[in-house]
Amino acid sequence: MAQINETLIPVVGVITDVRIDTPDIKTFRVVTPDGKKPFDHRPGQCAMLSVPGVGEAMFSITSSPTNTEFMEFSIKKCGCVTEWLHSAEVGQMITVRGPYGNPFPVDDVFAGHDMLFIAGGVGLAPLRSVINYCRHYRDKYGRIDIVYGSRSKDDLLDYKEIIEEWQTDENVHVHLTIDREQEGWDGHVGFVPNYVKELGFDTNKMAVLCGPPIMIKFTLQGLMDIGFDKTQIYTTLELRMKCGVGKCGRCNVGAKYVCKDGPVFRCDELDELPDEY
Amino acid sequence: MRKISLDKLDLLFAKIAENQSLYIPSDSVEGAKFTKWTNGTALTNELNTVRGIKDFFFPQSEDLMKFKMQGKNIEVIDIRDEHEDFVIFGARACDVRAMTVLDNVFLHAEPVDTYYKNRREHGIIMSLACTRPVETCFCGTFGIDAANPEGDIVCHKTDDALYMNAVSEKGTALLDSLSDITEDADTKAVDEQKALIKERMTKLPLAELTTDAFGGGKTEKFFDSPEWAKLSESCLGCGTCTFVCPTCQCYDIRDFKTNDGVVRYRCWDSCMYSQFTRMAHGNNRNSQKERFRQRFMHKLVYYPENNNGMFSCVGCGRCLAKCPIRMNIVKVMKALEGTDNGSN
Amino acid sequence: MQDVTNFKPLIVAFCCNWCSYAGADLAGSNRLAYPADVKIIRVPCSCRVNPMFILRAFQRGADGVIICGCHPGDCHYTSGNYYARRRMSLLFSMLDYLGIERDRTRVEWVSAAEGAKFAATMNDFVEKVTALGPNKRLEDLRCKK
Amino acid sequence: MQEVMRDKLVAKAKELLTGGVVTRVLGWKRGEFCYDLTPGIFKSADELDKEFDFGDFAAPNLSKYLIDETRKEDGKVAVFMKPCDTYSFNQLLTEHRIDREKVYVIGVPCEGMIDNKKLSAAADGIKNVAVDYENVVVETLWDGNVTVPRESVLAERCLNCKSKKHVALDELVGYEDEITECNRFDEVARLEAMTPEERFEFWQGELSRCIRCNACRDVCPACTCEKCVFDNPSSGVESKAPSDSFEEKMFHIIRAFHVTGRCTDCGECSRVCPQNIPLHLLNRKFIKDINELWGEYQAGAEVGSRAPLVNYTFDDMEPSEAVERGDKNA
Which fold does the domain A114-236 belong to in CATH? Predict the structure, then answer.
């Protein structure tokens, strides 16, 4: 693996697989040119992907650290880098640097607990890494609940994996929901925050939240309403980033840099930060 | 301590410039500016340069790497090389402290920025005490002693001689190499000058300004202050304050398509710019008020919080002199201070 | 030092779709020779040419930029070339003011029937730019990195 | 003289506020020193008393702020304008950027503003400044009183003042004045008379100092695009750094071109440039060319006039003749 001792200089990665998840989300599998995983990471960490001449952007690493062969990134088409990536074919090289940020505390705080994962839309991407990590070290965690919602059935990320792997796991409970009624869907219909309240979980567990800001806001409130404490809830933030190492000065919320001190925050930590994310 | 008489200043510069590039503040159309010394370059009489010495270590624009692309393949080319040795003469106390502020970001906070480190290692700073501070100076507010600047070699210029005192290893080596043109000196003249400077500092109009109200942990206190709206209402959102500031270090990383590849470079950026935090799906600092607040909160609260109480303003007064609409950190501090007292 | 005798300038020609672009076609089909280093960019009207286009052509390595439009009075959109004429007068005057060689820019009115004029104009323009040598005053050195 | 004017303006503003004619006043706020006035909004008589200031340093042109101010659903705003500011105001009206109904223009006479850069070059450590028609007396920190001729520290745009007449007014405080004779194109003509090599050297030297802080653009009352082309990532020219001399040339040529025929020559660009680049010489070149090619045109002189670049005649000069015209004159 090419190792250049400078955090801003990336290594080359090759896209070896492109999976179309939803109409606007694709999952890219990336390895180094000699077929290895670009670098080790922990669940919840991010990497800077770039297309020279187009730009560089921060993405959550979707694959679990337990996967030692490759990295996966689920990417929604929304800006110039992502648009370019969506048009990329297998074999295309990009550049990768990382890992950045603090991971979820999977080995200490989460260990031995029941887990509740709540995601909306592409918000499942950063959680997938944790979920699969927890599934891999199944004995370390109790019951796993996953609440996942999106606009429609077609917008559910990793649907195949959810149905074929997660749902078939013992003691893993998946609760899917979509925003509006749809033909061919016999599951739950409604927004995630309401669904969480309907499901009414017992509060003796750790919760991990990720999704659009508005969903996070209401789900957080919902969880508090059913008795969760903010110290039990973790989420991951995303802001504009350029360097990834806490120097370029744009992803800060108060005195904290999302790239360095985050992206994973416990919700009570967020309360201490100014409302600017 | 060594000294050299002022009429031999050119000899000193020539001697230093023998082995490395030497930059001294010299007059130009834009105002005083650090200029590469060649025979005849004259030291300015201005108090300070339009821009600080940040440019030497963290240039406005620098190439980071190159990419060669062929079909689907990409090659990353590391273009870093050893920087040349250089000496900066005549940096003021505020600007030298600004380097400590930048060091905290680029060197002391992991990971080290090797581009910055490279330049920093090859640069020697000869600081020069200020004898005639102007009304916009307020370095004392941040605990900077204009009479005793930091740096590798500390210089004091009196009416007839330049006194030099090496305070670092690099500085000692340089001063030793100048021993045949300099002579030993006692500290009398320098002590006298220091006393004069100290006295003058107390007479400055901003001498009373303090940082007591600010520092780490004050986010909650100031973040929602109604003053921000008033202070920022006339802000144009330009980058003048940021770019003349010796401690502002925000940068952008961008790609430039050359005729046969891509150069990735970094350049100064300003948190005052509307697109600074713009993402594909929105902007978390949408109004000028928020961007304005970010800049001053960073200098007065966030930076001290992360750096043991050191402020990232050095009181050089450049933003006071250069802001198109003459809004500046002093006005901000005074306005916020007012609210601080009010809430007690 | 670049060998001036071997210098072949890169010329960008913005040609109006309705006249000079067809004029260039005609020059081609009549086998009238003009240098291959003239790169034609078809625009819907000479007034489509934004001053930025001209500067960016120079940035990317052009040694001369020529704009060809319909003769005054013949604009497909009635008055586009009149506006272009005013704009380019100011822009070229500004470039001259900044010390950029004035022979590097030109506006020429060439109709669809004037294949010969097109070829002659290009030959003349290329000759003038060749005499000036490579564009140094409006070049972007980064492009050569 | 200064004091009296300030008091008159405060009284006028108070009268408008208390009379309910306007809900707020756009003026200049006193700063730390005698010279650092900041544009600001005043909503009460109390604020006016405490913070309002006017004098030889009230340089900022307030007209651009009216774009945002007149978008607010908050009644009428009173604004103080020096004669040259009213030209910018008219130009903004012409371009429909300001709702005239929501503005109450109070004209203030102007005898020229002092250039801070020139003043601090003339005297170190400014404690206080007293100005009369002849001289500026600077009370300094270390050198006692320093007296310099007023003319030597006046802003360039004021030395070449084009008009002391207000072209937009609801009310005038003070005296009425006239359009002035000026030699503002002399410097442009001097450059035109140089050889191309000299001109290139001159501009290369000037423009290469640019640090792309965008102050010239952001202060310019004619630069009112909601999104500037130089801020637009899709434009391909969005660049923040002067990494090569080309970048600055393009920025300044295009910026000057974009305000051609709309620039009133208010001189704010040169005033705010932290690198002392004489940007007004680019704008004035365009104005001079327009005057010579298509007849005298002063942007902002009247509301609704048709700018020369959105106009034409059948017998306009050809670009080649326009460029060579200088030679014939020489």
Answer: Rossmann fold (3.40.50)
